[in-house]
Design goal:
Length: 677
């Protein structure tokens, strides 16, 4: 537009005429010119920077349906007659809805049927109403517009108990401009209208629902209303269990087709129950070639989902971040389900031998892990163990004493030498013999670095539950297939993001391993090194003075402090030896902290499954594998229900009022007020 100004020409009082070639011209009336600085300028620029832009302001046409209603004095067969709405307002409307309410004497099966008919009638004739009385025996409704006298009453007939319209009062005098059409579209009504279309088109989007209802019924819905209506319709069409029964076999086959080398199993159980296991090829490859042989076993609770539990096996990469390996969908965290999960995991892993498992030890996991993975090691999840320890503390102790006891336990957990472990255990025993005995009963070789035989490499806990919780929307319950595919999508994105990030690294070790190594190098600056007198001719054994004397063996990668063995990163004593012998400490770090191993962890990609949301599979497919397309009864959740019932102690009750004396606190039968004449 340059520096030119925009002039808006406003014409009024004339008429539009259409030429033979279809062009529209305006003639007659008045014309006024005015400068426009911003709004019209943006509009002109939007339309390809055209020289002129025509804006037509047309007077709003009242499409209000005028209807007359019959009084109770009219004959029983009198009807309520209404005119058809203007087609320019709504392109389609169910004409039959205009006469769902015909007048006094009309009979319905019950109050519900009457309310449904009234709702359709209000939509067709575009008015709002409120319930004055609404119960199983009578329904009285009036127009919400102030001053509009329209009112209708229906109740059970005393003769044959039919639900009948008894009275219709007045006619509508309200104006259509005051009607907000979105109030007429309740969630249940939207669900009833879209149910059949949703059955045929599971991808029916809320925005499409809103557009269709606007076009077909003249109702303006926002996105939230359409989404809630779809949610109700979806639940009415098929329960989450039925969807799972129908779609899981299909989902398993799609995993095989799109991600070759993956492991997926769906198993039918008694009572129409099932369980599902999946381990993608990219996860299995990454665990075998890049991750340390460490798996955390944990149950993952998806908050909005009350029907399923996720059992997970999760490793950690060279940065200490979670790396999900396998997931299973089950109905509860039982020993039977855990046993089945471990069997599927054992069949999936290409290296099922020397693996260290970490868990909370519940649901019989100690026995199942040792049975299915006989060469493995099994330890406690440290965070869980510390929380369990806190429950054993004496209530009579002060908070300061409790904190000290927890610190003693942490020192006992992270102590790498047996003598240090015994020292901190004695400190706990000095305060409570009972607590020390409980710690010994839990088998310290499952949680103390000084006694644990497995290889944790400094990883004591895993936050996979928090990670999965961030991936799953907590506003509503997802069908199980969409739940699994949501996790798959996030895994796919996680693998890609971390792979791209690692491509920018220039160091041999991962950033976190480099930081730990640098901290040990700083500690080694003040240490002195001498050759050991007990090397038996081996020049690779040294003694390092650090208050105490520690022996370092370069050949076996060992130090008597045991921190090198426990963490996989050379301790300060070993680094002091490397400095003296002019060796690179990086070469003595565990391979699982190397950049190349990290990249191997994320070398493979999880491929998309493009058509996840599909109609349920046929009954023949589900029945052929023993799954019945019928709902599974949801298990009652442990603990108090989340929705608290009303407290009877604070409930507000209506006072009893006597119908004879109008007093409060008693009724007519117990009234003692003398009658007055």
């Amino acid at each position: 537009m340059g520096s030119r100004q925009i002039v808006a020409v406003l014409q009024l009082g004339g008429v539009f005429t259409t030429d033979d070639d279809g062009h529209m011209t305006y003639s007659g009336g008045e014309a006024h010119a005015m400068l426009v600085k911003s709004d019209l300028k943006r509009m002109v620029e939007f339309h390809a920077d055209s020289e002129t832009t025509d804006i037509y302001v047309i007077k709003k046409v009242d499409n209000r349906v005028k209807s007359s209603v019959a009084d109770s004095s009219a004959p029983a067969d009198s009807a309520i007659v209404g005119t058809t709405p203007d087609g320019s307002k709504r392109q389609k409307i169910c004409a039959s809805w205009e006469n769902t309410i015909t007048g006094v004497g009309q009979v319905f099966e019950g109050p519900k049927e009457f309310r449904d008919a009234l709702h359709k009638y209000a939509i067709a004739h575009r008015f709002h109403y409120r319930f004055v009385k609404n119960d199983s025996s009578r329904v009285t409704v009036e127009c919400t517009d102030e001053g509009c006298p329209w009112r209708i009453h229906a109740s059970k007939s005393s003769a044959n108990q039919e639900f009948m319209i008894k009275k219709v009062v007045g006619s509508h005098t309200c104006e259509s401009e005051t009607v907000k059409s979105n109030r007429l579209a309740s969630q249940k009504w939207v669900a009833s209208v879209i149910k059949e279309k949703l059955r045929d088109s599971p991808n029916y989007r809320p925005r499409d629902i809103a557009n269709d209802l606007q076009r077909e019924y003249g109702l303006s819905l926002n996105y939230s209303q359409a989404w809630r209506g779809k949610l109700i319709a979806r639940k009415e069409l098929y329960s989450p269990h039925e969807e799972a029964c129908n779609q899981l076999p299909w989902f398993r086959d799609r995993i095989f087709a799109t991600n070759p080398g993956s492991m997926a199993t769906v198993e039918a159980l008694e009572g129409s129950k099932f369980r599902f296991f999946v381990a993608f090829h990219a996860s299995l490859h990454g665990f075998e070639n890049g991750c340390r042989p460490l798996l955390f076993l944990d149950v993952i609770t998806v908050k909005p989902n009350k029907h399923w539990k996720l059992l997970g096996a999760t490793s950690v990469d060279g940065e200490g971040d979670v790396f999900p390996v396998a997931l299973s969908v089950v109905d509860d965290e039982s020993q039977e389900n855990w046993h089945w999960f471990l069997e599927q995991l054992q069949a999936s892993l290409p290296m099922p031998g020397d693996i260290t498992f970490i868990s909370n030890g519940r649901s019989g996991l100690w026995d199942d892990v040792s049975l299915i993975f006989p060469d493995s090691y099994h330890g406690y999840n440290v965070n869980f163990f510390i929380e369990e320890f806190k429950t054993k503390l004496d209530d009579s102790w002060s908070e300061e004493v409790k904190d000290i006891m927890v610190e003693h336990l942490k020192d006992a957990i992270y102590s790498c030498r047996v003598d240090e472990f015994n020292h901190y255990l004695d400190l706990i025993k000095a305060e409570s013999d009972k607590l020390a005995e409980w710690l010994l009963e839990t088998k310290p070789e499952r949680w103390s670095d000084a006694l644990f035989k497995g290889s944790r490499l400094g990883q004591y806990t895993c936050n996979i539950s928090e990670t999965i919780a961030e991936w799953i929307p907590n506003r509503y319950e997802l069908p199980v297939v969409q739940l699994l595919d949501t996790i798959r999508c996030n895994l796919m994105e996680m693998i890609y993001t971390r792979r791209e990030s690692s491509n920018t690294w220039s160091e041999v070790l991962t950033p976190s391993a480099n930081q730990k190594l640098q901290e040990e190098m700083n500690k080694a600056l003040s240490l002195s090194v001498v050759c050991s007198t007990e090397n038996d001719g081996n020049n690779n054994v040294f003694e390092v003075c650090d208050g105490s004397v520690y022996t370092v063996n370069i050949d076996t990668w060992e130090c008597t402090c045991r921190k090198w063995h426990v963490s996989g990163i050379p301790c300060c004593h070993a680094i002091a030896v490397f400095e003296q012998t002019d060796q690179n400490p990086v070469e003595y770090c565990s391979k699982y902290f190397r950049r190349d191993y990290y990249r191997m962890t994320y070398a493979m990609s999880i491929n998309p499954i493009p058509d996840v949301i599909v109609p349920p599979a046929s009954t023949d497919v589900t029945q052929s594998m023993g799954l019945q397309p019928c709902p599974i009864l949801a298990r009652r959740q442990v603990g108090r229900p989340k929705e608290k019932p009303a407290d009877p102690r604070i409930a507000i009750k209506r006072a009893v009022r006597c119908s004879r004396c109008k007093g409060y606190g008693h009724n007519k039968a117990t009234c003692k007020v003398p009658l007055t004449t």
